[in-house]
Amino acid sequence: MPLPPLLDLLVAVLLVIGTAFALIGSWGLAKLADFFKRLHGPTKASTLGVGCVLLASVLFFTFRPGSGGVSLHEVLVTLFIFLTAPISAHLLVKAALVLDPSERPAPPQDRADGGSA
What we know:
This protein is an all-alpha fold. It has one domain (5-101). Helices cover 72% and strands 0% of the residues. It has helices at 5-31, 35-63, 72-99. It starts with a helix and ends in an 18-residue tail after the last helix.
């Protein structure tokens, strides 16, 4: 027995959005100019893409007829990805700045009038 039509549509929309985010993240990794910009694509867009695909998987396997309840495998994978992607990106940036300190951006300048920009 198939899923209800509204849930089936939600799963399909989440899959399309997830694959679009993953494609955008992959394109950013291939096309952006330097290491720091290239790191931004996979850590942001691809993480959201994988999150949407895993959410679609959770909905599908939880609400299909004959399922045993909530599918925890996808929830654990999503939690692992959302915790590890920012940490690994942070460590990669720190390592790149140690290897080439000239890449460090200049500190912001204080305004003479004391106001904010």
